[in-house]
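Q: What structure does this chain adopt?
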Amino acid sequence: MTTQSFNMYKYLLSVFAFFALMSFALLPAGNDEDEYINFSIKNAGVTVSGAFESWKKDVSIKDDDLNNATFNGVIEVKSINTGIGKRDRDLMKKSYFHEDAYPKIAFKSNTIKKSSDNTYRVEGDLVIRNNKKSVTLVLEKEMEGGKPYYTTSIELNRRDFDVGGRSVMLSDDLTARIRVSAD
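A:
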């Protein structure tokens, strides 16, 4: 093995090790320790996880008044945390979230319907980088300490929102997980 190929081997090994370590991190975030907005995406074949640490919510779901129920939220894009500062700064750039022009991600519910005792179907609009898409969330309700919490998971295609462009390394699909309490 030549010195040049050995150095390339060491470099690739260190990059792989770095991403392998990152795949074990799922960072909690949110307004309290029991709430979070997390995501995971494959990058170079390894799952990378992160979270948004600053967001506001308007959650009010009462079974006897679902016509006035809300499941809304606004995320501060700059609060993204993947555990790597350089990557977080890169995600603020024009080719990804373009935080200078689009500092917020928003979700606004349009209808909320009860599916079962502890499950709700929320249809609403998700806006990222000024791209609005209709999405459906399935909320699971659980009570903790007398307080209702709602959990959901959704698969999104980042390119539907013009986040990142074509990439051989970065997957188009990501999973977002949300857990919030009612207001």
